[in-house]
Specification:
CATH architecture of the largest domain: 3-Layer(aba) Sandwich
CATH topology of the largest domain: D-Maltodextrin-Binding Protein, domain 2
Shape: globular
Number of strands: 13
Length: 319
């Protein structure tokens, strides 16, 4: 029997709703009679907005409550930012589709001046004055910026996109580090003042892609969401997530990774850094697309051999 109604779980931020509405539109286009309902679910990461992500613990920070409702049968599927989805899913759930990736890069956003224009005195990383304050909620971004510009002060920030932009414009920081994908999806691409090449400034694992999570035994929902699957993004992010799983990393440690295709070859570059960005190591491997998961482990093992495990263990031991 064909399903006529789907309940989709989503976080309540404007960006989360935009991402979920994108999925809703795609599903309705393919199934004109399908009734789709969005159900907003507040997660632990949404409630604890005054605490740095690295201090909360990242296992299911933005997904656990949503997954609980899915396992209970209260929702049929969830739309996540793939970078928020832990590499190990709860029993009974599966990653049914990964969407085509939006721009995976990290970007610099400079504050709006009183005349309503971007601050032209500091729109590029190289132009920021020594000692300038830069906002970021990511240890990975912080480490890579400090590796390039150790004379800057990187200050933690939390909140949704609109909240963070407002804090930047009204505060004493010069700039902020953000994901290009979120700004583009939210219609705020004009705020980007510098884009960092993802092969050099490594993004978060899965950054830019959306994950569609369902119950493992729900074959009808799996059939409906199959149209959302993008094979290239599945391959590249599988390699990235495999690397992250082997490193046992998350938002508590500065780990980045980026996979890309060149013809039939899959390339993966990964990085591990200390918090100050002074010990930053990178490794890269390539192989056939059907070896994506193995490639991730291979890059992780290279990073471990280069001292990555000692760096991560030292960070975690200091809490």
């Amino acid at each position: 029997m064909s399903r006529e109604r789907l309940v989709i779980g989503t976080r309540g931020s404007r960006l989360a709703r935009i991402q979920s509405e994108f999925v809703v539109d795609r599903l309705r286009q393919a199934n004109l009679d399908l009734e789709v309902e969005l159900q907003v679910i507040k997660t632990k990461g949404d409630r604890l907005l005054e605490t740095a992500l690295s201090k909360i613990g990242d296992k299911g920070l933005f997904t656990e409550e949503i997954e609980q409702q899915m396992l209970a049968g209260e929702i049929d599927l969830a739309v996540h930012s793939l970078k928020d989805l832990p590499t190990e899913l709860p029993a009974g759930l599966k990653l049914a589709a990964i969407t085509a990736r939006e721009d995976p890069a990290d970007v610099l956003v400079c504050k709006i001046s009183k005349n309503g224009k971007n601050n032209k005195n500091g729109c590029k990383l190289a132009e920021l004055p020594a000692g300038a304050r830069v906002l970021s909620g990511s240890l990975r971004r912080k480490a890579q910026i400090l590796h390039r510009r150790g004379d800057l002060e990187v200050v933690d920030i939390r909140g949704n996109i609109d909240t963070r932009l407002r804090k930047l414009d009204k505060g004493d920081a010069e700039a902020m580090l953000m994901a290009a994908a979120g700004l583009r999806r939210a219609g705020l691409a004009e705020r980007i003042t510098e884009r960092f090449e993802p092969m050099e400034f490594l993004p978060g694992v899965g950054q830019g892609a959306l994950a569609i999570e369902i119950r493992s035994d729900d074959e009808e929902t799996a059939r409906l969401v199959a149209i959302l699957e993008d094979a290239e993004t599945r391959s590249t992010t599988t390699a990235e997530r495999s690397m992250l799983a082997r490193l046992e990393g998350g938002c508590q440690v500065p780990v980045g990774g980026f996979g890309w295709l060149e013809g039939e070859q899959l390339f993966l570059k990964g990085m591990v850094s200390d918090l100050a960005g002074s010990k930053l190591i990178k490794a890269q491997s390539s192989g056939s697309v059907d070896r994506a998961a193995e490639l991730g482990v291979e890059v992780a093992e290279k990073l471990i051999a280069m001292g990555g495990r000692e760096i991560l263990d030292d960070i975690l031991s200091k809490g």
